[in-house]
Amino acid sequence: MTEMSSVDDLLTVRNLGKTFSDAGGLSFTSSSGGVRAVDGASFSVKPGETLALVGESGCGKSTLGRLLLRLIQPTDGEVLFGGRDITALSAAEMRMMRAKMQMVFQDPYGSLSPRRSIAQIISEPLEVFGLVKSSRERRDRVAELLTQVGLSPSFMDRYPRQFSGGQRQRIGIARAISVNPQFIVADEPVSALDVSVQAQIVNLLQDLQAERKFSYLFIAHDLAVVRHIADRVAVMYLGRIVEIGPKKSVYSMPQHPYTQALLSAAPEPDPDRKANRIVLQGDVPSPSRVPPGCSFHTRCPIAKDICKVDRPVLREVSPNQFSACHFAAPNPLSQAG
Ligand SMILES: Nc1ncnc2c1ncn2[C@@H]1O[C@H](COP(=O)(O)OP(=O)(O)OP(=O)(O)O)[C@@H](O)[C@H]1O
Ligand SMILES: [Mg+2]
């Protein structure tokens, strides 16, 4: 069973997959069938909702985020945005769709072109979609956007190098919201920033969402980062979503051993939980050689024989919480409540 979707979803993903052929990548395994970066992803995002996507480096988070915006073309599956399959749109139709879906990048240093002024950077999407008619109007919009992200409008004629990482990320955010998108993929938007600045940027993203009611796919390595901003959490391992559910259930009653391990590794204010720390065996296997059966079985502390041969699918283990583990048990607390 996969996660249910309904007509009022903003975004619905069905069996989405991406295989990178070896030729395009840096992989040395030319005999394999390429890198299966995303495999069989199915989920939905509601208007105004934040879905956090969490997992270790290389598990396919950025690839999944880029597939949702069709910055890369999927190998298989569908992405429905407002009910339309965007994987089937023409280039011209997709260009118009882009106004509704924007991205905030991880690296605030590399993602802003150094030779363009802040006004040019922020107003570029506005120009592409013909949303400003004069240079006067353009400067007014940029001033407004700078104010909304907590920067002075007087910055608009400066260049990216004159700003700190946190300020650059605010500029990237102003650019993303300039066209009033309904959906934003925020790909590790704070992981390149100083810890002291991270909370300010997360708060800004949250405040803008409260005002403008758009949805986020919020990508992070760390479950701690998304604890405050997420409504629901999806956990990814080697290209597959292994657990997805409401934040409360995933944090308090994680059902997949991988989610449990990620949570036990996160900084934990409650000293009782530290005692139950789960240390995973070994390294993440190469995505070009995904283990058969449950792809987590090589590192799983509770794996049995069945896990080596039989691939578990997502099952509903408590209301709206799905786990892809043969041994996930229905959550007794949620049934009582
Ligand atoms: N353009 C590409 N060509 C070939 N392989 C790719 C390409 N982009 C990503 N990959 C591979 O796909 C897998 C998933 O990569 P992806 O960048 O989506 O992971 P990630 O979870 O975002 O990692 P990180 O946390 O480090 O950002 C990796 O094995 C990566 O090497
Ligand atoms: Mg990434």
List the helices and strands and how they pair.
Elements: E1 11-20, E2 35-45, E3 50-54, H1 61-68, E4 76-81, E5 84-85, H2 91-97, E6 101-104, H3 118-128, H4 135-148, H5 165-177, E7 183-187, H6 195-212, E8 215-220, H7 223-226, E9 232-237, E10 240-246, H8 247-252, H9 257-265, H10 271-274, H11 305-309, E11 315-318, E12 321-323, H12 332-336
Parallel strand pairs: 3-8, 3-9, 6-7, 7-8
Antiparallel strand pairs: 1-2, 1-4, 4-5, 9-10, 10-12, 11-12
Helix pairs in contact: 3-4, 3-5, 4-5, 5-6
Magnesium ion (MG) binds at residues 61-62, 187.
How is the quaternary structure best described? single chain
CATH class equals Alpha Beta
Helix content: 25-40%
Radius of gyration: 21 Å
Determine the structural class based on helices, strands and strand pairing.
alpha/beta
**Number of helices, counting only DSSP H or I runs of 4 residues or more:** 12
Instruction: Return the average pLDDT rounded to an integer.
Output: 90
Quick one: biggest sheet?
A: 8 strands, mixed
Total count of strands: 12
* Anisotropy-based shape: globular
| Weakly predicted, low-confidence segments | none
- Could you give the order of the helices and strands? EEEHEEHEHHHEHEHEEHHHHEEH
Ligand list: adenosine-5'-triphosphate, magnesium ion
What is the CATH homologous superfamily assignment? Answer: P-loop containing nucleotide triphosphate hydrolases
Number of domains: 1
Strand order of the largest sheet: 6-7-8-3-9-10-12-11
**CATH architecture, please?**
3-Layer(aba) Sandwich
CATH topology, what is it called? Rossmann fold
Fraction of residues in β-strands: 15-25%
* Head-to-tail CA distance between termini: 23 Å
